[in-house]
From TrEMBL, chain A:
<dbReference type="InterPro" id="IPR016437">
    <property type="entry name" value="MCT-1/Tma20"/>
</dbReference>
<dbReference type="InterPro" id="IPR002478">
    <property type="entry name" value="PUA"/>
</dbReference>
<dbReference type="Pfam" id="PF17832">
    <property type="entry name" value="Pre-PUA"/>
</dbReference>
<dbReference type="InterPro" id="IPR004521">
    <property type="entry name" value="Uncharacterised_CHP00451"/>
</dbReference>
<dbReference type="InterPro" id="IPR015947">
    <property type="entry name" value="PUA-like_sf"/>
</dbReference>
<feature type="domain" description="PUA">
    <location>
        <begin position="94"/>
        <end position="172"/>
    </location>
</feature>
<comment type="similarity">
    <text>Belongs to the MCTS1 family.</text>
</comment>
<keyword id="KW-0963">Cytoplasm</keyword>
<dbReference type="Pfam" id="PF01472">
    <property type="entry name" value="PUA"/>
</dbReference>
From TrEMBL, chain B:
<dbReference type="GO" id="GO:0002183">
    <property type="term" value="P:cytoplasmic translational initiation"/>
</dbReference>
<dbReference type="InterPro" id="IPR001950">
    <property type="entry name" value="SUI1"/>
</dbReference>
<dbReference type="InterPro" id="IPR048517">
    <property type="entry name" value="DENR_N"/>
</dbReference>
<protein>
    <recommendedName>
        <fullName>SUI1 domain-containing protein</fullName>
    </recommendedName>
</protein>
<dbReference type="InterPro" id="IPR050318">
    <property type="entry name" value="DENR/SUI1_TIF"/>
</dbReference>
<dbReference type="Pfam" id="PF21023">
    <property type="entry name" value="DENR_N"/>
</dbReference>
<dbReference type="InterPro" id="IPR046447">
    <property type="entry name" value="DENR_C"/>
</dbReference>
<feature type="compositionally biased region" description="Basic residues">
    <location>
        <begin position="87"/>
        <end position="100"/>
    </location>
</feature>
<feature type="domain" description="SUI1">
    <location>
        <begin position="108"/>
        <end position="175"/>
    </location>
</feature>
Length: 182, 191
């Protein structure tokens, strides 16, 4: 989604969310990621001014008062956490670990193919189709991408072919390199 | 066949831990590389890895040692890597991660021009190459000189009034990365 994202050109406007809108967003995020219940005050403080950054292609980025991206979504889709947030709170999403050989392709924006998830170095969490997952790597601590599963874990194992997880947001893509918004 | 598959999937290990781990304090403290901006463990996948290494050595010597020792053997393994790379065909084009280009500061140019018959304006160019936010800079100028200041181009600020002489002192004072030597006076520009 952010492969060709350029923050200077793609951002169309930034505005502060009304408190009622903010409440709605908090609610939606909590519903989607129930694990962050204890930490929501740190991630999206109630007193804080949440910024909504509207971008081209109907992408909407939520930024905290420091201007750092926290969540994003496209159209009315689900909210995705940004990678910097995942690094701080890795438990938000189920993890999918890819093997070593896949890392360099993922880092250039490739989707995750099934063999990269089934080989000995890889580990999966049992999830269904269309689940947002964090892509981890063999021997590494931190996530390197955020993706959406295209098949359930069982299907990935049985077919072992084609795209298993769609790459949405990865290290050094447009969103990662976005400067803090004002 | 089906039976074999099921045994395989039961033998497979799954990640099961969901939710915050007990005993870990969140948010997790994480250090990013100043060169490639990724977590330090991913530096080796960056095309400008050599520069990352240097940055790590200068800024996070402890991390650097850990990464180097974690590789086991260090140099020997690296040589192997190099040979491997030669054998494998490298893919160019869109897929490859490109190293970020650092903008070279080009120096700041100051000029004055006239507006109407007797009014002067000062034109400052080159601030963006120092990665200075133009909007903040123009606000700073208008505060400092109590006058209008506007961004008129990609890398150009126009200040109303002739403040060129003051700028020579104020620019290095406000932004320490600017050297007084690198400020150039272009004199008076004709429209």
């Amino acid at each position: 989604m952010f492969k060709k994202f350029e923050d200077k050109e793609m951002v169309s406007n930034v505005n502060n969310a009304k408190s009622s809108v903010q409440r709605g967003i908090r609610h939606a995020v909590l519903e989607q990621f129930p694990h962050i219940d204890d930490y929501i005050e740190q991630i999206l403080p109630k007193k804080d001014n949440l910024k909504i950054v509207k971008c081209h292609e109907h992408i909407e980025i939520l930024a905290n008062s420091n201007g750092e991206a926290v969540f994003f979504r496209q159209r009315d889709g689900p909210y995705y956490p940004a990678l910097k947030l995942i690094h701080k709170y890795p438990f938000i999403l189920p993890h999918m670990q890819v093997d070593k050989g896949a890392i360099r392709f993922v880092l250039s924006g490739a989707n995750i193919m099934c063999p990269g998830l089934t080989s000995p170095g890889a580990k999966m969490t049992k999830v269904d189709k269309d689940q947002i997952v964090a892509i981890m790597a063999e021997g590494k601590q931190h996530a390197l991408a955020i993706g959406v599963t295209k098949m359930s874990t069982d299907e990935i194992i049985s077919s072992n072919k084609g795209i298993g997880v769609d790459n949405i947001h990865y290290l050094n893509d447009g969103l990662w390199n976005m400067k803090p918004v004002k | 066949m089906a039976a074999a598959e099921t045994t395989e999937s039961t033998a497979r290990e799954f990640l099961t831990d969901i939710g915050p781990k007990p005993g870990v304090k969140y948010p997790v403290d994480i250090r990013y590389c100043g060169e490639c901006s990724m977590p330090t463990e991913y530096c080796e996948y960056y095309p400008g890895y050599e520069r990352c290494k240097k940055w790590l050595e200068d800024n996070l010597p402890k991390e650097f040692e850990k990464l180097m020792s974690g590789k086991g053997g260090g140099d020997i393994e690296e040589e192997k890597d190099g040979e491997d790379k030669k054998k494998r065909q490298t893919r160019g084009g869109k897929g490859a991660v490109k190293a970020k280009k650092k903008l070279e500061p080009e120096g700041i140019k100051l000029a004055t021009s006239t507006r109407g018959k007797k009014k002067k304006i000062t034109i400052v160019t080159g601030l963006a190459s120092y990665e200075i936010d133009l909007k903040a800079a123009s606000k700073f100028f208008s505060n400092k000189f109590s006058c209008g200041s506007s961004i008129s181009g990609d890398d150009e600020i126009v200040i109303q009034g002739d403040v060129k002489d003051d700028l020579f002192d104020i620019l290095p004072e406000k932004w320490s990365i600017i050297d007084e030597e690198s400020i150039e006076d272009l004199g008076e520009l004709k429209k």
